[in-house]
């Protein structure tokens, strides 16, 4: 299984909506919070998804996960439920944390 991490493209929108909605329902069901579900088409606007940098994971030319982040946080991380436990989430986090961008998670741990 070869995973490719790349920048989000507009053509990925319908696929990340589908994936998010399935994975988010899994997440909420496990906490008995099904009623809190909002589809990505709504949540993206409410929670400013596009203010973050977004990367997607591809396997066999299909988008199977995405991560949205800023220099301060990982705000979104979703993997297609059909691809859970295949290292996709880990690969996305590594792509962000291991980024060559000096502004990503590169803060001093010193407290004033």
What does it look like?
By secondary structure, the chain is of the alpha+beta class. It is 31% helix and 23% strand. It has three helices and four strands; from the N terminus they run E-H-H-E-E-E-H. It has helices at 13-30, 40-46, 88-97, and strands at 3-7, 53-59, 62-69, 74-79. It has a four-stranded antiparallel beta sheet with strand order 1-2-3-4. The longest helix is centred in the first third of the chain and has 18 residues, at 13-30. The chain is globular and about 35 Å long. It starts with a strand and ends in a 15-residue tail after the last helix. Residues 106-112 have low confidence and may be disordered.
Topology of helices and strands:
Layout: E1 3-7, H1 13-30, H2 40-46, E2 53-59, E3 62-69, E4 74-79, H3 88-97
Antiparallel strand pairs: 1-2, 2-3, 3-4
Task: Output the keywords.
112 residues; 4-stranded antiparallel β-sheet
Task: Write a concise synopsis of the structure shown.
By secondary structure, this protein is α+β, with helices and mostly antiparallel strands.
What gross morphology would you assign?
globular
Q: Overall mean pLDDT score? A: 89
Fraction of residues in β-strands = 15-25%
The helix-strand sequence is EHHEEEH
Portion of residues in helices?
Answer: 25-40%
Task: Tell me the strand order in the biggest sheet.
Answer: 1-2-3-4
Class inferred from helices and paired strands: alpha+beta
N-to-C span = 46 Å
Return residue spans where pLDDT drops below 50 for at least 5 consecutive residues.
106-112
Q: What profile does the largest beta sheet have? A: 4 strands, antiparallel
- Structural Rg: 15 Å
Number of strands: 4
Number of helical segments with 4 or more residues = 3
């Amino acid at each position: 299984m070869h995973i490719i991490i790349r920048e989000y493209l507009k053509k990925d929108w319908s696929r990340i909506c589908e994936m998010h909605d399935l994975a988010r329902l899994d997440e909420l069901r496990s906490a008995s919070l099904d009623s809190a579900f909002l589809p990505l088409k709504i949540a993206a606007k409410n929670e400013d998804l596009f203010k973050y940098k977004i990367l997607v994971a591809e396997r066999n030319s299909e988008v199977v996960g995405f991560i949205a982040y800023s220099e301060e946080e990982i705000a979104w991380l979703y993997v297609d439920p059909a691809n859970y436990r295949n290292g996709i989430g880990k690969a996305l986090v590594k792509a962000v944390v291991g980024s060559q961008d000096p502004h990503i998670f590169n803060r001093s741990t010193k407290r004033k």
